[in-house]
Design a protein that fits this description.
The protein is 38% helix and 17% strand. The chain is α/β, with parallel strands linked by helices. The strands form two sheets. It has a six-stranded mixed beta sheet with strand order 5-4-3-1-2-6, with helices on both faces. A five-stranded mixed beta sheet has the order 8-7-9-10-11, with helices on both faces.
Length: 263
C-alpha cells in the first residue's frame, strides 16, 4: 500500500491509524512522510507498480468532514465493485478481529517505510511540458491553494518554468478560512480581484487535496472546468495532432461532441 494524507483535521492521525492496521496484518506500507496532494499518492502507486493505495482526505468538502479515497493498481480510483466489496468485508468484522499497531510499533515492525516521492512526481509533470516555451513568456502567476496542499508542487513546477509566482491562502488553516475548499467561481473572489488589480497573467486555485483546479484569466474571468476540457481537447487535436475517440460523462459539456465531429 501507498498511504498519503492532506492538511485536514486528523488527516495525519487517520493515516497513522490506517498504517497501524495494515502493518499489524503484515501488509508492507509506504507512507508519504508529509501532507501532500492526492495526485502525488496516485502517481506513486502507478510509478512503483503497487496494487493499492489510499489518501486520507475529504477533498473539497467542508472542514468538519474527513474520509478515505481508495486507489487500485496504476493509481486509478477504485470502482464501485471494489468499494462495495470492501464494505462487505468491513461489515463482517468485529472490532476484536482487527489487528492494530500504534505508530511506533508500525515503524518497528519492518513493514512501514517513510518516503518522499515529490521529486519524481514533479519531474514527471515537467517531462510533459514545453518548459522552454513557458520560460520565454515570463508569466506572472498567482496561486491559491485554498489552505490545502498544492503550494510546494505547483510553485516548484512554475518556478522551474521561470514564472514569477505569488501565493495567497497558503497558511495551515484546518477550517479553510471558513469557506468550502473547492475552486468554484463563487469561492475565488480574492483570486479574481487580485489577478486584475496586480496584473497577473493567470490565477490557479486548487481544492483541499489538490485534485480539482480552478483557472482565472488575466481579466479576472473564471474559466469553467468544462471550458478547460474543451480547450485541452482542441489543443490536443489542433496543435498536437492527436486522433482517436473522445469519452466524456453525462455531466460534461456537449461542446466536446461538436469538436469531435468537426475533426
Amino acid at each position: 500500500f501507498v498511504v498519503g494524507y492532506d492538511r485536514r483535521f486528523l488527516s495525519d492521525r487517520g493515516a497513522h491509524w490506517m498504517v497501524g492496521v495494515l502493518t499489524a496484518n503484515n501488509v508492507p506500507v509506504l507512507l508519504i512522510e508529509k501532507d501532500s496532494p492526492t495526485p502525488l499518492t496516485m502517481f506513486t502507486i502507478g510509478d512503483l507498480g503497487y496494487d493499492y493505495g489510499l489518501a486520507i482526505t475529504a477533498s473539497h468538502n467542508s472542514y468538519e468532514y474527513n474520509g478515505v479515497k481508495f486507489f487500485i493498481d496504476g493509481g486509478r480510483d477504485a470502482s464501485v465493485e471494489v468499494t462495495e466489496q470492501l464494505e462487505v468485508i468491513m461489515e463482517s468484522l468485529a472490532e476484536e478481529d482487527i489487528k492494530f499497531f500504534e505508530y511506533g510499533e508500525a515503524l518497528a515492525s519492518g513493514n512501514l517505510t517513510l518516503i518522499n516521492p515529490l521529486n519524481a512526481y514533479i519531474d514527471r509533470i515537467l517531462s510533459y511540458l514545453d518548459v522552454e516555451a513557458i520560460k520565454q513568456r515570463n508569466l506572472k502567476v498567482l496561486l491559491d491553494p485554498m489552505f490545502g496542499v498544492s503550494k510546494t508542487s505547483l510553485q516548484t513546477v512554475l518556478i522551474t518554468c521561470r514564472c514569477n509566482v505569488d501565493v495567497i491562502n497558503d497558511r495551515h488553516d484546518m477550517m479553510f478560512g471558513g469557506n468550502l475548499p473547492t475552486p468554484s467561481a463563487e469561492n475565488l473572489n480574492r483570486l479574481k480581484q487580485t489577478v486584475v488589480k496586480e496584473a497577473y497573467d493567470l490565477g490557479i486555485a486548487t481544492d483541499g487535496d489538490a485534485d480539482r483546479v480552478g483557472i482565472v484569466d488575466e481579466k479576472g474571468n473564471y474559466i469553467h472546468p468544462n471550458a478547460i476540457m474543451v480547450l485541452l481537447y482542441y489543443y490536443f487535436l489542433e496543435y498536437k495532432g492527436l486522433r482517436g475517440a473522445g469519452i466524456r460523462n453525462v455531466a460534461t459539456t456537449h461542446l466536446l461532441d461538436r469538436i469531435a465531429k468537426a475533426y
